[in-house]
Amino acid sequence: MPNYREFRASSELFLGYTVFIDIDIHNSLNNIINHFYEHLLHTLEMNNFEILIEKVNECRFHIHDFTYEDIKNLNSDNVYYICDHCSNS
Predict the structure, then answer these.
(1) What is the mean pLDDT of the chain?
(2) What pLDDT is attached to residue 86?
(3) In what order do the strands lie in the sheet with 79-83?
(4) Which residue in 80, 89, 87 sits closest to 23, CA to CA?
(5) DSSP label at 85?
(6) Among 37, 43, 69, 83, which has the minimal tally of Cβ within 10 Å of its Cβ?
(7) What is the pLDDT of residue 24?
(8) Beta-carbon neighbour count of residue 57 at 10 Å?
(9) Per-residue b/e over 13-38, b at no fewer than 16 CB within 10 Å?
């Protein structure tokens, strides 16, 4: 049974972009972030957003305040933000 969590962009350009990710098929924050990035990139490519594709390739997405274990064990109704605008990247 899938174990979905909601991940939302905290970003000047991509604010609010949301992906529901089955965390059981991933084993780290980096894998989750890569899944989010690939989903966003695919969406931009499918809609021919050429400038935004260039911009997303410059982003350094990260999750702070939570570990992979936190996300796996905390309430599935939580929203987890993937940031690209602070110095924690």
Answers:
(1) 92
(2) 60
(3) 18-22, 4-10, 79-83
(4) 80
(5) S
(6) 69
(7) 93
(8) 10
(9) ebeebebebebeebeebeebbebbbe
